[in-house]
Amino acid sequence: MDFTLDDEQKEIRDWVRTFVRKEVVPLEPEVLRRERAGQPGLGRDELKALQDKAKAAGFFGVLTPREYGGMGLGAVMTALVEQELGRSFVPFRFGGYADNILFHGNEEQKRRYLLPTISGERVSCFAITEPGAGSDAKAIRTSARKEGGEWVVNGEKTFITQGHEADFVMVFAVTDKEKGAAGGVTCFLVDREMGWKSEPIPTMGQWGPAALVFDDVRVPEANVLGEVGQGFRLAMQWIGQGRYLLPARALGACERLVEMAVEQAKNRVAFGQPIAEYQAIQWMLADSAVEVEALRWLVLHAAWLVDQGADSRQAQSIAKLYGGIKANEIVDRVLQIHGGMGYTRELPIERWYRELRLLRIYEGTDEIQRRTIARNLLRGHAKVTGTLG
Ligand SMILES: Cc1cc2nc3c(=O)[nH]c(=O)nc-3n(C[C@H](O)[C@H](O)[C@H](O)COP(=O)(O)OP(=O)(O)OC[C@H]3O[C@@H](n4cnc5c(N)ncnc54)[C@H](O)[C@@H]3O)c2cc1C
User: Fold this and answer.
1) Which is the catalytic residue, given 11, 46, 363, 367?
2) Do residue 181 and residue 56 come from a single domain?
3) Do 317 and 256 sit in the same domain of this protein?
4) 363 carries an active-site annotation
5) N or C: which end of the chain has fewer CB within 10 A?
């Protein structure tokens, strides 16, 4: 068992660490200033300019296969990259990324949707959630009926990330009510010009999703992604693509937060001595350090299983559940150690406090992760002794 990074992993991780320190972290005061004024933290052009800078240094398409111009770095390396990016709250991502299910498109679909998404010319969004169907995704009611050579889509989607910015949507609709999720749901690639409407949904965090409305939107038959009736499988594949990546980003945030808490504890004096001298503060630091360490190995283990092509579902759910819960506990402690300053918008702690809360909700709530973990044990798909047997 080797827990060290090899030279190449170290080199890539250090490059990202330096990029975040030199290019991303300096943007933080301006991002906070804009957000306080109710503006987006980073404009699309600014994001693109930063992505281009990274691309010029060869950093593009971390997970994207090399044949599509990406780096094809694999899961462990991507988790390490995400962790470094998570150290800043600036909403930056390297360019060259496309949703995994777009790789299932035919040649024409790849030309029109996959390649422009990778290059950053087009923005995609993924829409399964509806006002009446969230955790219970099988209950979706958006429908598509065939009329001549076209499909006519009707329904409403909600909480769609990038739904207001997207140029096209991968939308999931019922094409056979009898079969439902078992062969009766289809995924369509629908351009905004085909007529769907979006409305932003204000949230407590920076990721403003949108509600989408489909009112008799006509979609050519050529825009079915994969096969008619096989959409639910694609949706599950999308959701399962990187549950380890969400806690990986949170891990980076937690590392930075605990570092801030250590500094604050050493510098803040109360009752004649630094608060670091008080056991109440030390215990908060100690508990946070233990949890950060545990989360690191849960994330890397889940990513390692992905790289091995092994069944990683249990490990990914465990990392996502633990990461969501512990990141929220850690940011709360760090806010507490900062006292009143932690509660202000002068520091980014309250921002992380709001943002990390989302981790317990999207891409499977805590309760749904627990349900998955327990079911895997009860049905014998996973053992409590883990992958070592
Ligand atoms: C910011 C944001 C971005 C999002 N982005 C997207 C996106 O891009 N695309 C997309 O399709 N969706 C997206 N979602 C939707 C997200 O996946 C859902 O919000 C999530 O799956 C929960 O569904 P729900 O909100 O309908 O809650 P519900 O399913 O109504 O759940 C309500 C509560 O009941 C609990 N619950 C439900 N079922 C069970 C059960 N069987 N056992 C125990 N407890 C249960 C839940 O855990 C939760 O606590 C996003 C959501 C947010 C907030």
Assistant:
1) 363
2) no
3) yes
4) yes
5) N
366-386 tens-digit pLDDT: 999 999 999 999 999 999 998
The reply to whether 306 and 383 lie within a common domain is yes
Ligand 1 pocket test, candidate residues 365, 366, 367, 371, most atoms within 8 A of CB: 365
Residues 347 and 383 grouped into a single domain: yes
Q: 362 alpha carbon to ligand 1 midpoint, in Å?
A: 6
Measuring CA to CA, which residue among 41, 44, 75, 63 is closest to residue 167? Answer: 44
Residue 92 lies in a domain: yes
Q: How far apart are CA 17 and CA 3, in angstroms?
A: 19
Domain boundary among 238, 262, 284: 238
Residue 112 maps to a domain: no
Q: How many domains does the chain contain in total? A: 3
Is any ligand 1 atom within 6 A of the Cβ of residue 361? yes
The per-residue pLDDT for range 200-254, each reduced to its tens digit, is 999 998 767 999 999 999 999 999 999 999 999 999 999 888 899 999 999 999 9
For 187, residues 6+ apart whose C-beta sits below 8 A from its C-beta are 101, 170, 171, 172, 224, 225, 226, 230, 231, 234, 235
Residue nearest to atom 30 of ligand 1 (CA): 134
Range of the domain at 326: 241-388
Q: Which amino acid belongs to residue 176?
A: D
CB of 134 sitting under 6 A from ligand 1 = yes
Task: Say yes or no: CB of residue 297 within 6 Å of ligand 1.
Answer: no
